[in-house]
Amino acid sequence: HRDLLGIGQLERHEILFLLDEAEQWVDLNRQTTKHSDALAGLTIINAFFENSTRTLLSFEIAGKRLGADVVNMHAAQSSVKKGETLIDTAITLNAMRADAIVIRHGSSGAVDLIASKVDCPVLNAGDGQHEHPTQALLDALALRHALRERGHKADDFTGLTVTICGDILHSRVARSNILCLTALGASVRICAPPALMPAEIEAMGAKPFHDFDAALEGTDVVMMLRLQTERMEGQFIPSAREYHHLFGLSKDRLQRAAPDALVMHPGPMNRGVEIDSEVADMIGRSIITRQVEMGVAIRMAALDVLTRRTRGIDGWTNDGSG
Ligand code: CP
């Protein structure tokens, strides 16, 4: 591959390859001298047309820890506000001869469109309700590390049950995670209110639930997602109180899951709505901070792997099939 547009474009062995590549950066990021010069002389543009804290900062840190020059384009301060089209913006970025472009955009498919117009690798940092591939990869890496500490030997998730609960309809994180977790062997349960449940859950290999207590029964991992009210214009928006009552993860509710079940959330969290603070901060159970830590390693791996051809290193994957 030249680009990283979605988990849907990756084979299982390619997902595992990216996770394995990220392992070296987990170790480096824990050292005091955090630097590599693998990408020295390359320019990476982060073009974000939607708000971000974790993804934007971790791509910037990842690029800098690899020695690249990183520049950020915030749509709110760009000429997009003066009416420039997406394609003209892409042509403009291309003319600056970036070596990789990282894009977040509010429209599903916008990142694919830009990828078709530029000469360098494009990395999807979240496009509308479609995909957020580096989020699913960092979630898988965080889960792998937490399971390893508990004695889990396999590198994949065969035999594991993961329950994802929240606003699935609007969630690119849910979509990418369903694809990634099922590819790695996990059984995935999806829980959402009927109005926020997409039609294709079973076709994607996951099991839909509307009752959160039933979805939690015996699950090994619970991944909570926020209500994306910014994508609900004109739709019925449940009140925070009633949503919490039916779909919020409280300490009591977590007891339905397997003993020691792990708790995940991609952030940003709405504490007291989809997740209670005492669960989000539960030592030994919540791996939310570790997810953020793994985000830097995964983005370093993605930038490194996708720029290998530019740097005269063969292929996207080890076997050269990419
Ligand atoms: N999880 C995630 O994508 O967070 P940001 O929106 O802060 O980047």
From TrEMBL:
SUBUNIT field: Heterododecamer (2C3:3R2) of six catalytic PyrB chains organized as two trimers (C3), and six regulatory PyrI chains organized as three dimers (R2).
Positions contributing to L-aspartate binding: 82, 172, 226
A single Gene Ontology CC term: cytosol
One function term, GO molecular function aspect: amino acid binding
Organism domain of life: Bacteria
HAMAP family: Asp_carb_tr (MF_00001)
Record-linked PROSITE patterns: CARBAMOYLTRANSFERASE (PS00097)
Biological-process GO terms, alphabetical: 'de novo' pyrimidine nucleobase biosynthetic process; 'de novo' UMP biosynthetic process; amino acid metabolic process
Function field: Catalyzes the condensation of carbamoyl phosphate and aspartate to form carbamoyl aspartate and inorganic phosphate, the committed step in the de novo pyrimidine nucleotide biosynthesis pathway. Reversibly catalyzes the transfer of the carbamoyl group from carbamoyl phosphate (CP) to the N(epsilon) atom of ornithine (ORN) to produce L-citrulline.
Keyword Transferase appears in the UniProt entry: yes
Known catalytic reactions: carbamoyl phosphate + L-aspartate = N-carbamoyl-L-aspartate + phosphate + H(+)
Pathway terms, separated by semicolons: Pyrimidine metabolism; UMP biosynthesis via de novo pathway; (S)-dihydroorotate from bicarbonate: step 2/3
Native source species: Pontixanthobacter aquaemixtae
Similarity comment: Belongs to the aspartate/ornithine carbamoyltransferase superfamily. ATCase family.
Leading EC class: transferase
Name the record gives this protein: Aspartate carbamoyltransferase
Aspartate/ornithine carbamoyltransferase Asp/Orn-binding domain segment(s): 159-305
InterPro entries documented for this protein: Asp/Orn_carbamoyltranf_P-bd (IPR006132), Asp/Orn_carbamoylTrfase (IPR006130), Asp/Orn_carbamoylTrfase_sf (IPR036901), Asp_carbamoyltransf (IPR002082), Asp_carbamoyltransf_Asp/Orn-bd (IPR006131)
The protein's Enzyme Commission number: 2.1.3.2
